[in-house]
Amino acid sequence: MIISVIIPCYNVSSYLEECLESVFNQSHPDIEVICVDNNSTDNTYEKLRVLQAKRFQDLIILQEKKPGACAARNKGVTKATGQWIQFLDADDLILPDKLSMQIDLIIGSFKKVTMAGKELKTRVYNSSENLQSPWSSLMRSDLGNTCSNLFKTSLFKDDDIKWNESLESSQEYDLMFQILQKNKKIVFDSMVATVVSVREFGSISQSNLKEKWERFFELRVKIFLFLKQNAPKELNEEFYQIFFDSLRMLYPYNSEKAVSLYKKYFKDRFSPIQSSIT
User: Fold this and answer.
1) pLDDT tens sequence across 211-226
2) Res. 107: pLDDT tops 70
3) pLDDT grade, residue 267 (50/70/90)?
4) Cα-atom radius of gyration of the chain, to the nearest Å?
5) Is residue 116 scored above 90 in pLDDT?
6) What local confidence, expressed as pLDDT, does residue 261 receive?
7) Cβ-proximal residues to 192 (8 Å cutoff; 6+ apart), any chain
8) Which of 42, 59, 60, 197 is the right S-S partner for 34, CB 3.0 to 4.6 Å?
């Protein structure tokens, strides 16, 4: 069974070799590796060609002119021939048994580290989480991440799920929202097999915070409205608390909008409790 690994590449020349080593060193025997250069202004494209010629002869190199990682991932999907897809960012790593052990799974455990290797967070899922509603996990942004998860190719080619190229943040959870709307089965993997590198500078998560949290809450409004129409039983106290906590994240950056949204979605319907969100 072939697994296609799709890696969007934008100005990542210094990270490419270590990332590709982690992919080509996988114990799973049948992998297809697709790197998509996305308008890099450094020597990323040239570095890909050198690595292809000297070390990774089976590497497939594409170019995508539409800006953004989502456009690059969508381009990779169009060329993928595997039955499963592993998305990977070029500054992240996957451990040697990631693909062979996760072949029947989608939500993968992971750890986050600084570029210097300092561990920031480790998230380990367990099998009991399979029995819980995935909607609450979606609202908490707790369904793995782009690189720790494994996706069936049919999601993209048969169910017409796509990365939203208009989004600058909340991309992976917009994707997971699309998947849950299709009533797809989700399984959790306890093996920590992905290392996500957190850059101190240059990440969308580190900039444009007002717009980021507005998009963050807007997605949760879409989830709320979908469930209200299609699965109202999911709208329990836990759900509303998570929904409210996401609004609290917006408040420091746009208090006027946060108050307006509170009146629209929460007033006289929900009494929030103290949470760990600060």
Assistant:
1) 989 999 999 999 999 9
2) yes
3) confident
4) 19
5) no
6) 92
7) 95, 109, 110, 111, 122, 124
8) 60
Nearest to 258 by CA among 194, 213, 209: 213
**Mutual angle of helices 171-181 and 209-230, in 10-degree steps:** 10
How far is the C-alpha of 235 from the C-alpha of 242, rounded, in Å?
Answer: 11
Q: Give the integer Cα–Cα distance in Å for 237 and 272.
A: 9
pLDDT at 128 > cutoff 80: no
Q: Tell me: the pLDDT tens digits for 84-94?
A: 999 999 999 99
d(CA 214, CA 204): 14
- What DSSP line would sit under 158-187, residue for residue? TS-----TT-SSSHHHHHHHHHHHTT----
Question: What residues contact residue 97 under an 8 Å CB cut-off, 6+ apart?
Answer: 26, 27, 191, 193
Q: What is the pLDDT of residues 56-78, one digit of tens each?
A: 999 999 999 999 999 999 999 99
% helix, strand, coil for the chain, step of 5: 40, 20, 40
| Euclidean distance between CA atoms 208 and 249, whole angstroms | 14
Place of tokens 């982690």: 22
The overall average pLDDT reported for the chain is 91
Residue matched to tokens 């300092």: 118
Long-range contacts (CB closer than 8 Å, 24 or more residues apart) made by 203-212: 204/168, 204/169, 205/169, 208/168, 208/169, 209/253, 210/253, 210/254, 211/168, 211/169, 212/168, 212/169, 212/170
DSSP, collapsed to helix, strand or coil, labels residue 112 as strand
Running DSSP on this structure, what letter comes out for residue 56? -
HSE toward the beta carbon, residue 185, CA cutoff 13 A: 4
pLDDT at residue 200 in the model: 66
Q: Edge-to-edge strand order for the sheet containing 188-198? A: 93-94, 188-198, 107-114, 119-123
CB 111 within 8 A of CB 194: yes
